[in-house]
Design a protein that fits this description.
- By secondary structure, the chain is mainly β.
- It has a single domain, classed as TonB-dependent receptor, beta-barrel domain (Maltoporin, Chain A), CATH 2.40.170.20.
- The chain has 8 helices and 38 strands.
- The strands form 6 sheets. It has a 22-stranded antiparallel barrel. The chain has a 5-stranded mixed β-sheet with strand order 3-8-9-6-7.
- The protein starts with a helix and ends with a strand.
Amino acid sequence: MIRTLAYRTALFAAASGSVLLIAGAAQAQTQDQTTAVDDIVVTGTRVANRSRLDTVAPVDVVTAETLEQRGSTELAAQLAASVPALNFPRPSATDGTDSIRPATLRGQGPDQTLVLVNGVRRHQTALVNVNGSVGRGSSAVDLNAIPSSAVERIEVLRDGAAAQYGSDAIAGVLNLRLREAREGGGATVTFGQYNTTFDGYYGRSEDIRDGDTLTVSGWQGFALGEEGFLTASVEYRDRERTNRSDYHPTLGRITGSQGDAQTEDLSVYLNAGVPLANGWEAYGWAGYQQRDGSAAAFYRTPTDDTQNPDYGSGRKYPNGYLPFILTDTTDWTAAGGVRGNLGEWGVDINLGYGSNKIEFGAENTMNPTYGIDGPTSFYAGSLEYGQLVLGIDASREYDLGWHGPLNVAVGLEARNETYKIGAGEEASYARGPVLTAGGSTLTFGSRGFTGFTPNNEVDEDRNNVGVYVDLEGEVVEGLTLSGAVRYENYSDFGDNVSGKIAARYDFTPNFAIRGAVSTGFRAPSLQQQYYTQTSILYISNVPYETGTYPSVSEAGLALGGTPLEAEESVNYSLGFVVRNGPFELTADAYRIDINDRIILSETLTGSATADPGTNARAIYDLLVPYGATAARFFINGVDTETTGLDVVARYRADVADGHRLDFTLAGNVNDFEITKTPATRSGILPNPQTLFGRQATYRFEEGTPPWKVVFQTDWDAQKLGGTFRLTGYGDVLSAGATEATDLQLGDALIADVEARYSFTDRVTLAVGADNVFDQYPRQSLPANNTSGAFPWSNFSPYGFNGRYVYGRLSVRW
């Protein structure tokens, strides 16, 4: 593994060196035609007017223009196309995760990256990812709840920053800066669809056009008084489902629906600022999104005697049925504050609230115990998460006789969080009057997604308060030092102290080295502590009524659960910065050690026919009163070690009057290793039991690409413009239950292309294709995919939908 990492690192170094030589030659030819590349950032530093190339930690800046120049209109997908360290897979048949997909940074968990909006902590989604996808066991921020039309730019801090910002900032920080405009506006209409060729093992071979996606977005700036602003942004998106399932090998028709969920969402964002007296300013923003999703579950066959029984008068679905899981998501956020000067101190006081509520349903399904005339659609209950945050930050400069002033920042953040589970209608979870049919004991609850029961209902909350001190200054010419310490107290698990020290030395205006060491933490989320549900889960194609229980519940404690504790991390980074006119190159190596990661345990299965004294019989006897035959719960205990390298090289120049070229080569190498798994916790079990098994281990270690490289060229020549992007992905492993069923998805090189024509300075038409050469990952072997319903792995980093073609019309005024 170490030799592999060294080899890939050498490749990146060679590639970066080549770009440096090319740029040097280009600089000699265009030395009078350079463009400025420094962007002022506010993430990772509390020093005013610090550019992204002058920071002590690596910060990427992704502009609204960059986000727009691709086919997808989802913010997370747009960002993943620009930041190699960020991945955004497209899982299918993973319940609510199909509609609310998580992103990962540097191979860490989706909940180990902190997301800020205008510098204020963003709330998480209420969803817990409990199925077999990247991010299993996490509850993260839904980036796609924010319309890209509302975003001016995104600052990506690729470094541990818990000492500066608090919990979750283990992998880094995403800070979304909202658009600020007093006047002007724009509108965009984008339409796209997948235009691809499918060639399956079971006979499905055809040209497919599906996934039609219409996005209409716009923004408008308004003047508030003489100097204030109000920017309103609206986005509507309607996406049809895709289906890459193969023919069923015995039924000879398509029965599954593996692909993107059908979604429809409407988002509205407002951002405002108004000057006050004495140099103070009031500011605030508010956002709303409504998203309706429909994702396919597993197909129930015509002869499934427990889920599609013969009642004597026939079966409810003679041809079988494919349930659909419905998610109705409402996301609210609002924040406001004031900032100005109190004496020598610059002060910022803000208060923000955010909530995310998901209401679940199921349709085209049944509760077998309600008979042949029972309902076919159900309301299955809700999840709701809320967060209230108060932030107070102050900073000033002190002259200590150093080469530059010492910037001192202090602050406080107080947070209240709430989490609720609401029960579904009785028929979605209850055992009805028909207990058996045709000699088979019937399963109960709505198939595809069993409703939350009254016993699942929770209403929990917690509080925490954190205080910090952050110092940064240029001690001697060229040497900048910074340090931060943060103390946090949580009402549910206690205290935490994090620290960070960082340094940068500028040998010349064109070359600098930088590095940092920090400790961090991630508090167990309320979702991980209290989520509970009983639902059907397929294990080796066998359905189990599986209960997910809090670790301190009666069932959880009996199986070995304990109160959850915070994850703890240590981050190391070392890198350099090179800049020469329009050329820049940054390279940053890192290591992230995390102890006591919170994970969802293996599913412990029970059996009524197992011998007494076996684990299976003990589990069955425990779970029967709960209406389950299998169980899982959240636990601490996994230790991980991640080493990697980020390289970003860029060259920008005006090569002729009105002609601009922009070349970017960026890459990430990431080696993830599990160094410890949870100790066996017996509880009631008579024999040792694996709580973190083979598939879970490989999902962590090899479920995201070991390397990702993006080469992009942007060209603007008056009325014409274009973007060409090549994205390379390293081989991802989709782990099976045994080595014989493992699937290597293979290295991939995906090409995207877009051409633009401006009819006027205000009207632009773009046409393009993502994955223009229609690349797919490797299919699952027939031996591992007996139904034909799931020929593709959820771990493919670029999905499995094929070529996407689109057109976009943009108008600005």
